[in-house]
Amino acid sequence: MDCENINPYEGDTRHKSEQVEEMFDHIAPAYDFMNRAMTLGIDRRWRRRAVKMMAATEPRLILDVATGTGDLALMMARAMPQAHIQGIDLSAGMIRVGERKIAEARLSERISLQQGDSLALPMPDATFDCVSVAYGVRNFEDLQRGYREMARVLRPGGLLCVIELSTPTSPLVKPFYRLYTRHLIPLAGRLVSKDVRAYSYLPESIAAVPQGERMLHLMRQAGLKDASYKTLTFGVCTIYTARR
Fold it and tell me: How far are the Cα atoms of 11, 173, 175, 178, 214 from residue 170, in angstroms, in the given order?
């Protein structure tokens, strides 16, 4: 089953985007804590790796799609002092948390967040030097449309960088990964989060999202070129890049 058909709330007839927005509004207060706990803090290392790739292109204007609580936007702003970062996310709850973090970091002049739909970006064509999205594409209601929108707002030659969780292929790692994601993470989510379904949806969406060459094919179909990927930490995370 494709990730577009995996919804946060089973039996809910609303569009996936509406369900995703509600889910992240619910879990926003616990989101950063759960990210650190679920990955044992390794998610920061994955972001740093992606930021290093983006910094090499010396972008001036960056769009961070599905920006959430602004973790990647903050890291990019610190690593690239020449850049302004515009973040967009469906969830007003996540943006409120992100804006507090940005204000505390005294980076409000260089990072701005807004609520909006990643499938209908409210930005003109060819606006950004770089577009990033961390752990967000599997939540898109229409992945191909999302890639077309990100390609549209990129300037010619601009870089798209996607960080996404993935399923390890090693027969030694897979059993432990399955136990952790399908049992321990949902249990921790129920204890910490107000939304008991959110952390069951997570492993289901990871298993369903296109990975490797399938993801690169979608990028190319959206008009992107030079698409490639690199797996990290036994294949638990993958960084995809492509050019406009």
Answer: 34, 5, 9, 12, 19
Residues with Cβ < 8 Å from 18, sequence gap 6 or more?
none
Burial of 46 (0-12, 13-18, 19+ CB in 10 A): buried
- Strand order across the 84-89 sheet: 111-115, 84-89, 61-65, 128-134, 154-165, 237-243, 225-232
pLDDT score for 34 = 78
In tens, the pLDDT along 146-171 reads 999 999 999 999 999 999 999 888 77
The answer to whether the beta carbons of residues 118 and 48 sit under 8 Å apart is: no
- Per the structure block, which two tokens stand in for 74? 């903050």
Residue bearing tokens 């804006």? 99
